[in-house]
Amino acid sequence: MPAPSKRKPTTDPHRTLRAVSVENPFYSRAHAGDPTNPRKISAVVNIRESAITTMAARGRIDVAQVAAADRFRRLWETMGGKGASAIDYGREYVDGGKRSDPITERQMNAADGLRRAHRALGDHGYWLVSRICGEGYSINEVVRPGSSKRAKLNAANDLRSCLDTLCEMWNLVVKI
Fold it and tell me: 135 lies in a domain?
């Protein structure tokens, strides 16, 4: 039987939190010069929320790549619809009422955006971006179990190049 480890697991929540500068949601252009109305404010972000936030916090991807990943995630979540909802037994159905449309125009536009992204990225690139940006997988979960560090680094490099492709497709600013 191996000796017990002397190291305690790191469960310190402050290691996963980091202060970042974000746009002020309450910013008003009417009071632009006022010192109580800053354009950017500091906020605390959980860097382990997703692989994208982790890579952005470590400086592995730039702002345009984060914007491309966020846009892809919004399209992915829009296509998912509202998901499974509970049955409301108390709701009274009225004859002659308007039937709801099973798919909205917003969902069709999101599907078109994802279709264009699939054409631009190819099968492997779309699979990688949809797993990490859409479904929230980590880099370690995308590569095969027991893979080497090189496989994880290759997956991260592939993700960065795919995000650059999405930046070009959506006319986001790409690093020079």
Answer: yes
Asked if residue 49 lies in contact with residue 79, where contact means CB atoms within 8 angstroms, the answer is no
Helix (H) or strand (E) holding 19: strand 17-23
Q: Tokens 């949809």 sit at which residue?
A: 130
Tokens of 85: 């909802």
Query: Contact at 8 Å (CB) between 57 and 45?
Result: yes
Render pLDDT for 109-129 as a digit per residue (tens, 0 to 9): 999 999 999 999 999 999 999
Number of domains, the chain: 1
Copy the structure tokens of residue 138.
């980590």
C-alpha torsion sign, points 80, 86, 90, 93: positive
pTM above 0.90, yes or no: no
User: Helices in 6-148 by DSSP H: which ranges?
Assistant: 51-57, 63-79, 105-129, 139-142
Identify whether 36 is part of a domain. no
Q: What is the domain extent for residue 162?
A: 62-80+105-169
Are 61 and 156 within 8 A, CB to CB? Answer: no
The answer to whether residue 116 is domain-embedded is: yes
In whole angstroms, what is the distance from residue 39 CA to residue 23 CA?
6
Whole-angstrom CA distances from 46 to 57, 73, 152 are 10, 18, 22
The verdict on residue 109 lying in a domain is yes
For 122-174, the pLDDT digits (tens) are: 999 999 999 999 999 999 999 988 889 999 999 999 999 999 999 999 999 75
